[in-house]
Amino acid sequence: MNKIKLTLGAPPQQLDAVELDTGKNEQWRDLWDGPLRNENVTNVNDLVATLRPECKNLLVIGIGGSSLGIKAIQNALLDSNWNFLPHDKRNGPRLFVLDNIDPAITSSTFDLIKTDDPHLKHTVVCVISKSGETIEIAANLMVALRELSTATFVAITGESGSLINFANENSWKTLLIPNGVGGRFSVLSPVGLFPAAMCGVDIVALLDGAKQMSADCESTSNIAAALATYLIGHAVENKTTQVMMPYCVGLTNLSHWWVQLWSESLGKINEHGVRVGPTPIVAVGATDQHSMLQLWREGPADKVIGFIRVERGDDISLGDKTISQNINLLCNKTMREVLHAELEATTQAVSDAAQPTWTLTLSQVDAHTIGQFFALWEITTAIAGGLLKVNPYDQPGVELGKMLTANKLR
Ligand code: PA5
User: Fold this and answer.
1) What residue segments make up the domains of the chain, in order of their start?
2) Which tens digit of pLDDT belongs to each residue from 37-58?
3) How far apart are the first and last CA of the chain?
4) Does pTM top 0.85 for this prediction?
């Protein structure tokens, strides 16, 4: 049964149906079903079986599509206290993700690992880069090779290029990012599966969730088509700021994963020479009600606000002792009840202010629903690319940024 439900607000004008691109760049659709899935799961599980028993610290070095997926999985599926639990209380290693070149973060992460594991016998460094030549990844790797030289290194990369060559020369373990799977569509390849499996995440459930969503999207209740038509329809009517607001702190990084997918895939010059693409924004409920809601209510009506609601999960009773009669309404409520009331109130506040809304309701946060979420947005993005007449699979702006950075450093 589909554990994600979509509710849409005021509709935009109707858009033409699109032919889906099933060309060579769409191999990401094979990640959750068939021979490619089986090959990836076997390769990941084989490597995890050799490394996990002795591993206490797993350091992932990546950026963009090579790190946002595992950060989303970490935030959603590993307890937020995961890295603070003692080794015997965790179902896998501590997970550190370095996806920036802030010297303070890199050195404090390395110090933390070296304090815990001075000889680095229990430390795995996993370098993820499809091209193998991204500056930020290369910079962190250079420091890691010097500071963590006795750790075990793993490379997850494309089948040719600098990183695979270096890994092979140094007898590192390697996993391949399949051809035709771009960075931001790669979370369900070894890019996300290997670190997730190292930390005990059920990768079969992740892939099964994605497979089910994909099958559902081929049926008449294609929620990806409904979402894409809704969001792009509103974008062409100048509702170009599009917010994802989970009422669940653990889904914050999932929203940041979506930001990359939505902006890098859709922010393009389209086939008519027009610059298009909605601007995605992350907000977190209920916190950002006390930050952005005022703007959404009375600022420009140029937004679509999306909510993520989680039906079940941890909950806390508030009890019956309040500090004043004015807040007696909280008595005997649970924290989740209050959170749901806040979500419904914000939905009403913004839709009454001419900002259309959508809500995705997850029955609960688990590997299956997170897998569904990944597939849903990848399929939605592919359809949105067709509606906007852009190629969702290239990123000339990102490539230009990489080239200009290299020029500055020469
Ligand atoms: O989605 C993308 O293609 C990008 O965000 C890349 O993932 C990012 O630039 C890192 O590139 P690479 O994995 O080649 O090092």
Assistant:
1) 5-23+206-399, 27-201
2) 999 999 999 999 999 999 999 9
3) 55
4) yes
